[in-house]
Amino acid sequence: MARTHSPYAGLRRGCACAEFGGRSLPEFGSASLSQDVGWQAVGNPTLNALSLPVYRYVGECPGGGVGRITAAFRSTMTQPTEDLEVTIRNVTAGIDDDPYPNIERDYDESSTSDRADIGFSANQIRVFIGRRTMAVMPGLNQFEYEIKDGDRVVEQGEFATRVVPMPIVQERRAQQRTEQYCRTGGSVSGCDRDELRTRYLWQCPSTEYPIPREFESLFSELFD
Fold first, then answer.
1. C-alpha–C-alpha distance, residues 49 and 47, integer Å
2. Which domain, by its residues, includes 78?
3. Is 218 a domain residue?
4. Is 219 inside a domain boundary?
5. Which pTM was predicted?
6. Which of these, 99, 101, 87, lies nearest to 141 by C-alpha position?
7. How many angstroms separate the CA atoms of 181 and 172, rounded?
8. pLDDT digits (tens, 9 = 90+) for 29-65
9. Domain for residue 211, yes or no?
10. Residue 191 lies in a domain
C-alpha cells in the first residue's frame, strides 16, 4: 500500500488570508508548513518556503519583470532511488485547472528529485528548451504529489508551500549594438561593398519573464 501524507488532516480549508503589500493572499486553513515533504529551494534547507523576485526596472529602460528560482522535491518518507519518478500538481484555488500546472521529475538524487524551475503564473508554463517550469501563485500554494516506481504508487499526498514575492528595484540600461545598412537605401544583401555602412544603435533589453497580467495590480503595490 502506498504511503500517504497530508498536513491538512482535521483542518477545514477555508481562507485564512495573509496580508502582503496591502492585499490578501490566499492560504489554506491554519496548517503549518510541512518539513517532511515539499519543495526545497537551492541554497535553503527549509522546506516549502520560497521567495521569488519581482523586478521594477528604473533608468533608461523602465518596466517590470519576474524571476525564477530552482528547487527540488523532497520527502523524508521515501528515499530516492533509481527508477522512481515524482509527479507534482499545483491545485491552488484560482490557478488554471485545465489542466492543473504539473511537472514530472526523476526521484533518484541523493535526497531529492531532479531540480525544476519555479515561476509566477496562474497557468501551465510552456516548456522552454525541454525544461518545464512549475507555475505558482503568490501566497500559500497547495500541491498534490505521487512517487511511482513504474505503475506502482510508492507514496502520495499533499503539501503546502508559501511563495513570497520579493521586490527588487534594478537599474536597466540600454545596450549598444551595431547594424549594417546600404548608403543608397537598398538591401544589405544586394548592396555594393563600397556602399555598406555601419551604424550604432541603443536598444533596451527584452524582458525575459514579463509580469503575468493577472498579478500586475498586486505586484505594483509591492513598490508603493
1. 6
2. 3-173
3. no
4. no
5. 0.79
6. 101
7. 28
8. 344 678 899 999 999 999 999 999 999 999 999 999 9
9. no
10. no
